[in-house]
Specification:
Layout: H1 4-20, H2 24-32, H3 41-51, H4 57-73, H5 81-85, H6 89-92, H7 99-113, H8 120-129, H9 149-158, H10 168-180, H11 192-205, H12 210-220, H13 222-228
């Protein structure tokens, strides 16, 4: 149990951070409705697959997903999970060089394609709603090479689940908030499953959704603030 005074302090500090997060509610709501990238399932999968490599999201991932959309999706070359599963990787590498990312995207698409849904968006949402954090190591997606708990959680968020994605930016902010509040986490961030559960529980105790903590962490990151205020204004409705 946590002391009430520490939770009150955490709530106060977190609320101040939330005020700094540009368009936070819009990004959160878009994720919960699975409407990132206009609800196009294959683009959300590519976002997750490219992001897993660790390159800068705004300078590398966003331009690549947009280029794929223009070159393959808008031309009806690749419109669905089924389309990309057997598509020639060498042709795809004209957009994104990393072969591992494409293999991950194909693997994710193959898993999601077996779920019910009239659209890929519905399949992603049905997958997300039927798989929990505890199910990660038993779930088919975890067997896809290159897919770890961070990408798994990212896909669950895009599938409409209110949860935490434990990347280094989110972990840094969570630790900062809890430290300033006098709260000591029992779980190490290296123990991802328990860390996510404990962190989600703490923030739910103060009425803040885990997905909001995730997005807030990204949006107040110094690099994100600099970029969001500039050249990416025209595509904010997509991400």
């Amino acid at each position: 149990m946590f002391k009430e005074e520490n939770l009150k302090r955490l709530k106060t500090i977190t609320d101040e951070y939330i005020k700094k997060a540009y368009m936070l509610d819009e990004f959160v709501n878009r994720s919960l409705r699975s409407m990132r990238w206009e609800g196009i399932g294959i683009l959300m999968v590519l976002d997750a697959s490219f992001t897993s490599v660790g390159l800068n999201y705004f300078n590398s991932v966003i331009p690549a997903v947009i280029e794929f959309k223009e070159k393959f999706y808008d031309t009806n070359e690749i419109r669905s999970f089924n389309d990309i599963i057997n598509y020639d990787i060498e042709k795809l590498r004209s957009v994104w060089k990393n072969e591992r990312s494409w293999k991950a995207a194909k693997g994710i698409s193959r898993v999601l394609s077996f779920y019910n849904g009239n659209t890929d968006r519905e399949k992603l949402r049905n997958w997300a709603s039927s798989n929990s954090l505890d199910n990660f190591k038993r779930e088919d997606l975890s067997k896809v090479k290159g897919i770890g708990i961070i990408t798994y959680q990212y896909l669950r968020i895009m599938g409409g689940i209110d949860t935490l994605m434990p990347d280094k930016i989110v972990i840094k902010l969570v630790n900062e908030l809890t430290s300033k509040s006098g709260i000591i986490l029992k779980s190490s961030h290296k123990d991802y499953i328990n860390y996510i559960k404990e962190t989600e529980n703490i923030f739910r105790l103060i009425g803040v959704e885990p997905i909001k903590i995730t997005w807030m962490s990204w949006l107040i990151d110094s690099e994100a603030r600099k970029i969001l205020s500039g050249k990416f204004n025209s595509v904010l409705h997509l991400i």
